[in-house]
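Entry 14. Structure prediction run on the chain below.
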Amino acid sequence: MVAIGAVPTTAQALNAVRTWNTVQTPLKVTGYGSTGYAYGTWRVGNTSNGTRSIASTYSKLSNADDHKVYAELGTQVNAGYCIQASKYMSCTQKYWDHASDETDHHSSKSYVAKSASTGVSGDADYARGKVRARLDIPWRSDPATGWSYTDGGDKY
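Output returned:
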């Protein structure tokens, strides 16, 4: 039996680090002869710029031309209680897209650390990150992977 108003410890997770993909299973984006890889972590943390959604990424590129790789962070927020297990999500309120940011674009053949961050909504209580790898292809649309969502609905 759960007491009314009780919130599981996993939901009270300011500064809890969430993993999205790993070096063994990175996101992989291909296009126009290049392949990019990315993995990393995400958290909601208090910074000198206020409460932020922060993606720490590691990305690399197998480059065909003047292409670059980067990661795109999408911050989603929720105004109700939410739990996300690894294969399903159960919420009293749905998440909505709040803000997005990109890491710096680069063409390194080795993994390079980059970060992206956004603010979080004052109208919400919980956040999660969604991240995807992208290729920066001059004069063309940038190919992208599907979104990788972080586990947990983190209260901030």
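The chain is about 0% helix and 55% strand.
Filed with the rest of this week's runs.
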